[in-house]
Amino acid sequence: MENSIKINLDLLLVQRKMSLTDLSEKVGVTIANLSILKRGKAKAIRFSTLIALCEALECQPGDILELEY
Question: What fold characterizes domain 4-61?
Answer without folding.
Answer: 434 Repressor (Amino-terminal Domain) (1.10.260)
